[in-house]
Amino acid sequence: MRILVVEDDPILAEGLKTGLGLAGWTVDQVGDCEQARAAIAVGGFDALVLDLMLPDGSGLDLLAEMRRARDATPVLLLTALDETPDRIRGLDAGADDYLGKPFDLDELAARLRALSRRGAGRSEASLSLGGLVLHPATLGASLDGRPVSLSRREFALLSALMERPDVIRSRAELEDRLYGWQEEVESNAVEVHIHNLRAKIGRAAIETVRGVGYRMRRPS
Q1: Do the Cβ atoms of 92 and 72 come closer than 8 Å?
Q2: Residue 135: burial class (beta carbons within 10 Å; 0-12, 13-18, 19+)
Q3: What confidence tens digit (pLDDT) does each residue in 158-192 have?
Q4: Band of residue 36 on the pLDDT scale cut at 50, 70, 90
Q5: Which residues of 76-97 are buried (b: 16+ CB within 10 A; e: fewer)?
């Protein structure tokens, strides 16, 4: 899951980036509306964490722009303005959830997981395909009931494939899920992760579609 954090407080922004990264997400962070618009235009985010009070404008105005452009990316508003009228304005402007400062990082992570499930049309907290099960809340995995140890990026890549079984995901799509825009991506990074995953869950689990990408199939 790839998150855009729009927060101008450098200490809070860095804490969010580090904490959500440890929780398994790929996090990009910007500090104002102008940078946020540029990031949103590129796309590829599964959710936004959006502060209401930004140095060059209002997060509500940015949210309204997104919704007018029919951008349905889930948005969680994060603000010190925790009065009921502010919550109402945020939700009516198109926000999907709202969390007032100060907040608990674990609660924020749980709310983002819920937004991700709803955005993907899932109700279950876990992802399963055949005997393979992923638990996003703990970054845990099991195969036929046996634990499987995965790195954060292996978990993210496997999640991307399991979220849309039978759909081919290109290398570029998978790179977007694994790396932020400020991170350098080695040319064979996805291939290395795929190789490591096959060693852990079986070579046949992930299919290479030559010249196109990778996919996992639903059990017949």
Answers
A1: no
A2: middle
A3: 999 998 899 999 998 898 888 877 677 777 889 99
A4: very high
A5: bbbbeeeeeebbeebeebbbbb
DSSP labels, the chain: -EEEEE---HHHHHHHHHHHHHTT-EEEEE-SHHHHHHHHHH---SEEEEESEETTEEHHHHHHHHHHTT----EEEEES--SHHHHHHHHHTT-SEEEESS--HHHHHHHHHHHHHHHHT---SSEEETTEEEETTTTEEEETTEE----HHHHHHHHHHHHSTT--B-HHHHHHHH--TTS---TTHHHHHHHHHHHHH-GGGSEEETTTEEE-PPP-
| pTM of this structure | 0.80
**Total residues found in the chain within this entry:** 220
Angle CA 89–49–110, to nearest 5: 105
The β-bridge partners of 127 are: 134
Overall average pLDDT of the 209-220 stretch = 90
Beta strands at 132-135 and 140-143: parallel, antiparallel or unpaired: antiparallel
Closest CA relative to residue 26, chosen from 178, 189, 183: 178
Q: How far apart are CA 162 and CA 133, in angstroms?
A: 9
How large is the average pLDDT for residues 191-197?
Answer: 94
CA within 13 Å, CB half, 119:
21
Q: Distance (Å, rounded) from C-alpha 95 to C-alpha 75? A: 5
